[in-house]
Specification:
Elements (H helix, E strand, L loop, with lengths): L1 E11 L3 E13 L9 E11 L3 E2 L2 E3 L2 E2 L1 H15 L8 E6 L9 H12 L3 E4 L2 H11 L2 H8 L2 E7 L4 E7 L2 E8 L6 E3 L5 E4 L17 H18 L7 H6 L16 E5 L1 H7 L12 H10 L1 H5 L1 E3 L7 H8 L26
Helix pairs in contact: 1-2, 3-10, 5-8, 7-8
């Protein structure tokens, strides 16, 4: 006997905001006389929203009202009502999770959209969701190989080391396409503080492709170090996020590489114009594709790249227990309970 659940995933990232709707098929694998043993037997994506640029009020605040409008419109397109949704997750990831009003926006969205898991995703959670959503975890389990998954977004790169289907380590680097932003005329409008001391770019500079390529190559070198493909220098420590400092060691064994995130699309299918997205994303993708170290390593190409994290949130954020207990005079469900492992 099986049951079908409707699950929604919403990812509000540094660069992009996306929503997916999945159908989860739940089956009881236990016998009729045993404690129920429920498993998610099948996951199928029913709807994918367009990829929106994440709306911001300014560099410190997310535009919660615009995000709410996006969710409302995508629910309409998907033919969903709030009461149709059984489970799901709303997560704010990358640089957006550091905005001052991030948590308040999440809580308001959760009340509006349904009974969701809500999180300002730290590097551990985001790494896990991206690796699962991209299919890297399933590939590692099926092939019995060690995979290093890199989800390269606008502000950060989330790393997951996977051995035989088990995520054994996660990490996060300040490496992403939106560390430098510029207009169609090539005039710089933003330079991330994490690049301080690594380049001489400043707001107002008019830059060419040749001016920015050294920055993209420097960020690529940090990724190579994290993958154990280049000798480690202080560059890796400088670009490791504060949340992940000291938590990720480059793998010692050969790994199969897997990429997702917006920059992953620019590795295999870059647009012809390096100015296309108004940031470093295209040049960073080209630098990764041209890296001799990355070219020598094995590669797994998953079905999801820019949507990997939201697929992980919508299809892989739900787990089931086979039995429950009854407790008198407690108003269930209990919400917003911190969980520590």
């Amino acid at each position: 006997m099986s049951e079908r659940l409707c699950s929604v995933g919403l990812d509000v990232g540094t660069t992009s905001t996306q929503l997916i709707v999945s159908e989860l098929v739940v089956e009881n694998r236990a016998s009729a006389f045993a404690v129920p043993e429920l498993e998610i037997a099948q996951r199928e994506i029913r709807y994918k929203s367009p990829v929106y640029f994440t709306p911001l009020l300014d560099e410190s605040h997310v535009d919660g009202e615009k995000i709410r409008e996006i969710v409302q419109e995508e629910y309409r397109k998907a033919g969903l009502q709030r009461q149709d949704v059984d489970t799901g997750a709303i997560i704010i990831t990358g640089e957006t999770s550091r905005k001052e009003n991030a948590r308040a926006v999440l809580d308001a969205l959760a009340d509006f959209a349904g009974e969701f898991v809500v999180a300002t995703a730290g590097p551990d959670l985001e790494s896990v969701l991206a690796a699962k959503g991209a299919g890297a975890v399933a590939f590692s389990e099926q092939e019995g190989k060690t995979v290093l998954h890199m989800d390269i977004g606008g502000g950060t790169s989330n790393l997951a080391l996977i051995r035989k289907g088990q995520i054994v380590n996660t990490g996060c680097l300040n490496v992403g396409g939106r560390l430098v932003k510029f207009g169609e005329d090539g005039v710089v409008s933003y330079v991330s503080p994490v690049l301080s001391g690594l380049c001489n770019l400043k707001v107002g500079d008019r830059v060419t492709q040749e001016d920015l390529e050294p920055v993209a190559q420097l960020l690529t070198q940090a990724l190579e170090m994290a993958a154990g493909l280049r000798d480690k220098t202080e560059l890796l420590d400088k670009l490791t996020t504060a949340e992940a400092a000291g938590g990720f060691s480059p793998p010692q064994e050969p790994v199969v590489l897997s990429f997702s995130g917006g920059v992953a699309d620019c590795i295999d299918n870059p647009p012809p114009d390096w100015l296309a997205f108004g940031d470093l994303g295209v040049l960073l993708g080209l630098a990764i594709a041209a890296s001799p170290a990355f070219q020598k390593a094995g590669r797994f190409r998953g079905a999801e790249t820019i949507r990997a994290t939201v697929v992980g949130a919508g299809s892989h954020s739900t787990d089931l227990s086979g039995s429950t207990i009854f407790y008198r005079d407690i108003p269930f469900p209990l919400k917003s309970i911190p969980i520590l492992k």
